[in-house]
Amino acid sequence: MAKNKNTTKKDRPGPPLPTEGLSPRGKMFAGAGGALVIAGFVLLSFADALGRNLPALISPFLLIGGYAAIGVGLFLPPLPPSDPSA
Fold first, then answer.
1. By the 8 A CB rule, do 27 and 76 touch?
2. Count of domains in the chain?
3. Confidence band (pLDDT; 50, 70, 90) for 86?
């Protein structure tokens, strides 16, 4: 069976344009969030089984705050350039 020559792919779209990565501020927030998550898990390892000591009370806030900081860091735009003449 012969190929149909009318089905060539001339109008095929090109590769997608490159996108921006994380902004420096976003990298800082994501890094700080990762550090908070690690600190939360380390602190959680010192919690007692009933959850009645200080590490058991603090670690959930560190974990949630760390994950929130990572999420904010992913969508944080870069700072606008400052005008030194103003």
1. no
2. 1
3. low
Phi, psi of 63 (to 5 degrees): -65, -50
Is residue 1 one of the residues assigned to a domain? no
Q: What is the pLDDT of residues 8-31, one digit of tens each?
A: 566 778 888 877 788 999 999 999
64-79 exposure pattern, b = at least 16 Cβ within 10 A, e = fewer: ebbeebbeebeebeee
Q: Residue 53 belongs to what domain range?
A: 21-75
Is 14 inside a domain boundary? no
Q: What is the pTM of this model?
A: 0.72
Residue 64 placed within a domain: yes
Q: Does residue 6 belong to any structural domain of this protein?
A: no
Average pLDDT for the chain:
88
Q: Tokens 């390892």 label which residue?
A: 45
Round to whole Å and give the CA distance between 30 and 21.
Answer: 13
